[in-house]
Amino acid sequence: MKFKRNITILLAFMLTISFSLPLKSQDKQSELIKGVKVAELLKAGDKHKYRVKLEKDQFAFFRLTQKGVDALITTFDPYGKKIQDFDSPNGRKGDELVTLFSDKKGNYSLEVTALEEKGHKGNYELTWEKLEPKGTTPEKQIDQLFTAWNNPQTPGASVAVAKEGKIIFKKGYGSADLEYNIPNTPATIFHIASLSKQFTAFSILLLEGEGKLSINDDVRKYIPEIPDFGKVITLNHLMHHTSGLRDQWDLLAMAGWRLDDIITKEQILRLVSRQKELNFNPGDEFLYCNTGFTLLAEVVARVSGQTFAEFTRKHIFEPLKMTNTLFYDDCEKIVKNRAYSYHVDSTGFKKSILSYSTVGATSLFTTVEDLSLWAMNFENPVVGKDVIGKMNIKGILNKGDTIGYAMGQGVGVYKGLKFIAHDGADAGYRTSLWRFPDQKFSVNVLSNFASFNPSGMAMRIVDIYLKDKEVTEPSKKEAEVKTGTNATSDNNKIKIDHDTLLSYCGKYELEPGQIATMTLENENLFVEAPGLEKTPMTPVSSTIFDVSVVSARVTFMKDESGKVNKFKALMNGEEHYAMRLPDFDLSKVSLTEYTGDFYSPELSTTYSIVVESGKLIAKHFRTGNVHLTAIKPDQFTGDQWYFGNIEFVRDNSNTITGCKVSTGRIRNLKFEKTGKCGMRCEA
Q: What is the CATH number of the domain that holds 202?
């Protein structure tokens, strides 16, 4: 017995040592102590694990400061089940802020990994800053969620929660103006970006209810300067992002505009009037398009005889007593109590400038209080009683498929509960409004900080108030329709062999010129695509992966020979297929034959394409350089969001005569070759 007892003591001692010291491999594990800062070097492929001892019903707050490495922090419960990921869009600098609520006593854990390419490394500092009892009221729990922003030295957010016709919580956190330390409050006015779109769609429906238009009308009936593309584009197409029009922001950026320039409605209308082609036939597809909602606002103005700002004030905001709400159609207009927006870099907080003088797709100024009044109007209508129902009807494509978008709003299911929601992002503003019609519940979060995740925060507030309503085990079918993700609760335990993961790597064509690239780094699969930075994919099975940041589920598929030849992506209830591109020998590409000046009459702008230091570069005199990488014969990807892909066009004599440029929201915009500048050409 003495021998067995000594062995037990020895094993316990060795186990203690193994948990208290870093592992010899790249994985590290240790206990985190409140108030004690941990400084570490993090390399791609490392996993640093920290144990946190918590009692039942406690709240803990942690701050990880990134110093040259983009870190992802994941929390786990005492049984190793994943709780939540924390990763702000701040790259390799700034803070990642982690909150943790315990529902049982035990050793919780934080896992730190790097969202980096193989070989990259950087430092971070991790501190457990706060520990206190978990709030016993919803109000206190929300305060705890916003711990990091409850500080006058940072930007922050305002929040409002409404239930059964009453605002039951409202509060502001952080500063609306860092220069004067003016706090965010429930009465602070925010620019809410794309949340504006539902008000634009509502305005169209109000006019239809008065018999002044039909949503099935051709938009050219009201705005004849829109080109005749040979296809009818209806107002209904515009409201559901199925028009095929190119997006205004992508067009402006490709034409050489900065998005912090002063941008007006007139400039956008002139740009649209110069377009020669659509992305696709109206009604064939869903592709998010801000242009459509700018045009809808102009239709409202022309039909009503009022400016869009005047129409919405008279017909929506005044009846609902939204006294602090307006469409901001003049960037020089003074608005009292407004929040200014910010981002952060290695030097600290910086202003994010916004100078839009265009409305419809964006530019609604409002408060969380006023936005709650708008949300409650869907439950007990004061305005638009006869059109409320239409707002929630999802669009239908020409082939009969139903999309997940309904007139300026997304429709879906969260933990078994139907929701109607939309987010917004312009400059440093980040906004989100979620409505749960069956529960007569809404939450809206308006922030003036670019690294803030309003939708994620809104969902955590929903969990606080509607926990007893949630369906915790949705069926597999419901989970897939919901967002295409999260049907598996414990994905982190799935292991896939190296050769299988390697077989998925390569380039896949989502649309003509739209390329998704799959890469393998440290046995983790990553995806990169237009509008999507390199992002880790979470395995659900040996062939299925989730991309949580865009709520997509990717399934790799094989041909008859057993080779992976395409993938299927399920996103917002829709399926999209991408074919794999054949392997391409970059060494056989002669870059010099692609050089020259390329002019777009639709944008009235020129790019000079040159070779410098063995690299192909598209130069623009205003926006700078776009570095091009060959992906297949005559086709390259660009490293700027507004210049995602370029395909060169040849004539019958095999001479390059032009090119077609695509982004996430523009397809095949044509440029004509006007001259050859060669390797010494200067933009």
A: 3.40.710.10
CA-CA distance, 322 to 329, in Å (whole number)? Answer: 18
Is residue 128 a part of any domain in this protein? no
- Give the pLDDT of residue 28: 62
Give the dihedral of Cα atoms 332, 294, 90, 348; nearest 10 deg.
0
Cβ(676)–Cβ(596) below 8 Å: yes
- Tokens representing residue 95 in the block: 């803070």
Q: Are residues 639 and 612 in the same domain?
A: yes
What pLDDT does 572 receive? 60
Tokens of 543: 């062939």
pLDDT at 491: 40
Selection from 537, 536, 535, 540 nearest residue 490 by Cα: 540
Amino acid present at 81? K
Half-sphere exposure (CA, 13 Å, Cβ side) for 226?
A: 24
- Cβ–Cβ under 8 Å, residues 379 and 163: no
Q: Which domain holds residue 600?
A: 586-675
Query: Domain tally for the chain?
Result: 3
pLDDT per 10-residue tile (average), the chain, 683 residues:
39 36 51 94 92 96 94 93 86 89 95 86 96 96 95 96 97 97 98 98 98 98 97 98 97 95 96 97 96 98 98 98 98 97 89 96 98 97 93 93 93 93 96 97 97 92 89 44 37 76 90 80 85 82 86 90 91 79 80 96 97 95 92 89 93 96 93 66 38
- Secondary structure (3-state) at 446: strand
Taking the C-alpha atoms of residue 666 and residue 287, their distance in angstroms, rounded to an integer, is 10
**Tens of pLDDT along 624-665?**
999 998 888 899 989 898 998 899 999 999 999 999 999 989
- Pairing mode, strands 635-640 and 552-558: unpaired
> 3-class SS at 203?
helix
Which of these, 520, 537, 552, lies nearest to 72 by C-alpha position? 537
Dist CA 357 CA 40 (whole Å): 47
SS3 content of the chain, % helix, strand, coil (to 5): 20, 40, 40
Angle at 636 between CA 682 and CA 288, to 5 degrees: 105
Q: How many alpha carbons fall within 13 Å on the CB side of residue 28? A: 18
Residue 373's pLDDT is: 98
Interaxial angle between packed helices 454-466 and 138-145, expressed in degrees from 0 to 180 and rounded to the nearest 10 = 160
What is the token pair recorded at 162?
A: 């409404």
Angle between helices 290-304 and 197-209 (to 10 degrees): 40
Contact 360, 200 (CB under 8 A): yes
Is residue 277 helix, strand or coil?
coil
Three-class secondary structure of residue 41 per DSSP: strand
Is residue 552, in this structure, part of any structural domain at all? yes
Length of the chain: 683
* Dihedral angle sign, alpha carbons of residues 536, 539, 544, 546: negative
Residues 575 and 593 in one domain: no
> What is the dihedral sign for C-alpha 324, 329, 333, 339?
positive
Are 349 and 448 in the same domain?
yes
Same domain, 417 and 507: no
Retrieve residue 612's tokens: 């410098």
163 CB neighbour count, 10 Å cutoff: 19
Coil, helix or strand at residue 393: coil
Distance CA 543, CA 566 (A): 12
Assigned token pair, 412: 């879906």
Angle between helix axes 265-273 and 290-304 (nearest 10 degrees) is 110
DSSP secondary structure letters along 328-364: ---TT---TTBPP-EEEETTEEEE----EE--SSS-E
Specify whether the CB–CB gap between 271 and 292 falls below 8 A. Answer: no
Whole-angstrom distance, CA of residue 340 vs CA of residue 128: 30
